[in-house]
Amino acid sequence: MPMNLLPASAAAFAPRASPTVVLNTKVEPWLTATLKRTNRVKRPLNSAPQHMRCLTETLSGSTAIWTLCSLMLEKAPDADLRKDPNPLVEALFNYQLIHVEAYVVHVDLVLQNEVAFKLTPESIEALIEYHKDIYSVDVAARTHDWSEKEVQLRALHEDFVQAANKFVYRATATALEGMEEDGAGELLCGRSEEVKAAIMGMFVPLLPPPPPRLPEIVRPPVLLPSSPNANASHWWSQSMLMPTQPAPVDSWKVVPSSPSPSSSADSHSSLWAGMGLNEMQLPSPTPSYSQPFCTSAQFYSAPQTVAPIPQLPLPLPSLLAQQQCSTSAGFGGFVWDRYQEYTTTI
Predict the structure, then answer these.
(1) C-alpha–C-alpha distance, residues 26 and 48, integer Å
(2) 3-state DSSP call for residue 185?
(3) With the CA atoms of 117, 118, 120 and 121 taken in that order, what torsion angle do they form, in degrees rounded to the nearest 10?
(4) Number of neighbouring beta carbons within 10 Å of residue 333
(5) For the chain, which end, N or C, has fewer CB atoms within 10 Å of the first or last residue's CB respectively?
(6) pLDDT digits over 175-194, tens only?
(7) What pTM, to 2 d.p., does this model score?
(8) For strand 20-22 and strand 168-172, is the pairing parallel, antiparallel, or unpaired?
(9) DSSP 3-state assignment of 334?
(10) Is the distance from CB of 157 to CB of 132 less than 8 angstroms?
(11) What are the phi and psi torsion angles at 22 (to 5°)?
(12) Quick one: which of 273, 252, 258, 99 has its CA closest to 186?
């Protein structure tokens, strides 16, 4: 893709110079007709060099000024405008018409097929004056005050000055059909609206700084009753509030000093009394009494009547599993597979 090159006269703050003209070996008929119409002196236009020389001399004249567009702008800031019930009076006293004028700096009918216009110093000065005396005042009045407001206003105006001096409007080469006598002319086919939109786009609004950002407050997440964390914290709080009590010791775990019929009977009766009806594995029908039995060869106790089973707290499942799954024999509540726990006691 070819580069969009412009001559040095199109740079910002550069003085006006003769435009650069690049034509093809075969000149377009519309260009020949335009040059014949705009030149008072009849000149031969039989070749491309003759067209190039005629076009360059016509666009280099001091009167070769093009009117790109016209802007209706305020004469004073909004606070100083005249108020009148008649809108026509307000328009006459409060608004002015600024004609944006330019001159041709580049014509390319080979690569880009375009013509470039640069604003005249008078148009640049008129736009800069309006921006400084009217636009900046209105923008400052519509925004709140902050510490660096004046600095930002000056920077905004300096940016506009640079943009106005750098402004170059590019149009298709057929825009030269609007050329009149002595190289002056105006844009046709709605191109003036494009220039107007481009120039008004240079009036950038004044943006105040954003408000200070408040620090974010980190709030703990709300625990719902259905949340597992909520249940865990509730259980932990309940366990912390409940007083700790020593675990009850079953009477059948106490090892007697010597095996006796009475202690053996009492231990077995307490064991059966601590178990619920649903936990005893007895044949049907359930007998109303149990016969204590001692495995010792020296002692045998007579059958004793067992009192009704009281409703005592049920033992833990782990204790019942140990009682049901143990296969060792015991003497008077002493179990051989757990002798390590009673060595210190005896």
Answers:
(1) 7
(2) strand
(3) 180
(4) 21
(5) N
(6) 999 999 889 999 988 899 99
(7) 0.61
(8) unpaired
(9) strand
(10) yes
(11) -125, 115
(12) 99
